[in-house]
Design a protein that fits this description.
This protein is mostly beta strands. The chain has one domain. The strands form 2 sheets. Strands 1, 2, 3, 4, 5, 6, 7, 8, 9, 10, 11 and 12 form a 12-stranded antiparallel beta sheet that branches. Strands 13, 14, 15, 16, 17, 18, 19, 20, 21 and 22 form a 10-stranded antiparallel beta sheet that branches.
Length: 322
């Protein structure tokens, strides 16, 4: 039996759980950057409306859809990432989409190559570090693929979309609820094709109170630069306007400055005590610029990405102490 804590990509729950959710996030961008689509397969276990689901968001238009399935139509593999929801299959090497419900008709197969996995160690099974071992956290996070190439195509409501030579990214969340407030930024369509960036900061409940925790990485030139609460990194600045967000973070070896310009947003559902009852806004059409400096303030790397992911619950800025 696979030790699941060291394989956050596989299903972490079971169908007997209550007030539980688990969702996987698959993002796809065409080579010409003209199309960006994300699919979120998952499970919602609760007393009122237990069901499986697939969320779809078109990053260019901001339109989205939420397709619900009986829990009996959610199946998985205990030892690897393999989900089947209805007639659609999701893995870490391909997805087969076959959705024909309501206004959504999406079919096709996308395959993934040259996948970059997030590094794991005995004491750090994934991006959450040693927090992976804490059983009482309301939401846990995993990165399945930092970066990969795509081949294949989709047919969306009679439109053919070619994803050959496109770029993809996969992550996931599981637990009881999303945080009260958070900021999430993700980008891997930089001028330097192999680069990838992810940042999230959230208000995290903890023993009757809370703390502000963050996790981030920059991957470029086949190397990870890690910034997080658990490796004693700090947020020096975090500012926002109606159109942009800037974050400056620092560890003992480097400083990373991230600027994000907001673009098209769509609506997604998010979990509260296992129920997908919260409505949030997400963009997969924003712009990100990053600059990495060493401890002597020498610029090591600077680049920008289109079609970046962005979720922001503005209350997070009230909690961050700089």
């Amino acid at each position: 039996m696979t030790l699941r804590i060291y394989h956050p990509e596989i299903f972490q729950g079971n169908m007997k759980k209550k007030h539980y959710f688990e969702g996987w996030y698959y993002k796809h961008v065409t080579h010409d950057l003209k199309q960006v689509w994300s699919f979120i397969p998952g499970i919602s276990l609760n007393d009122k409306d237990p069901h499986a689901f697939i969320q779809i968001i078109n990053g260019i238009t901001g339109t989205s859809d939420y397709i619900s399935y009986p829990t009996e139509q959610f199946t998985w593999d205990k030892n690897k990432l393999y989900l089947k929801i209805g007639e659609s299959v999701f893995t870490d090497s391909y997805i087969d989409i076959n959705i024909e419900k309501g206004d959504s008709k999406v079919t096709g197969r996308l395959s993934y190559q040259n996948m970059v996995k997030y590094p794991k160690t005995l004491l750090s099974p994934g991006i959450m570090g040693w927090y992976s071992f804490v059983p009482t956290m309301e939401c846990k996070h995993g990165v399945v693929s930092v970066n990969h190439d795509i081949t294949g195509s989709l047919k969306v409501n009679n439109e053919h979309i070619d994803f050959n030579e496109g770029k993809g990214y996969i992550e996931k969340d599981w637990g009881t609820s999303f945080p009260e407030a958070w900021l999430w930024i993700q980008a891997n369509n930089f001028n330097e094709r192999d680069s990838s960036f992810n940042f999230s900061i959230a208000k995290i409940p903890w023993r009757g109170t809370y703390f502000i925790g963050f996790i981030a990485f920059l991957f470029y030139n086949k190397k990870f630069f890690l910034f997080s609460t658990y490796n004693n990194s700090v947020i020096n600045e975090m500012n926002h306007t109606s159109d942009s967000i800037t974050v400056k973070m620092k560890n003992r070896n480097a400083t990373l400055i991230v600027s994000t310009n907001k673009n098209t947003f769509g609506e997604l559902r998010a979990p509260v005590s296992g129920q997908m009852s919260r409505r949030i806004k997400e963009s997969i059409d924003s712009d990100v610029s990053i600059s990495l400096f060493d401890s002597n303030n020498t610029l090591l790397y600077s680049d920008s990405s289109k079609r970046a992911g962005l979720e922001v619950i503005d209350e997070i800025f009230n909690y961050v102490r700089q």
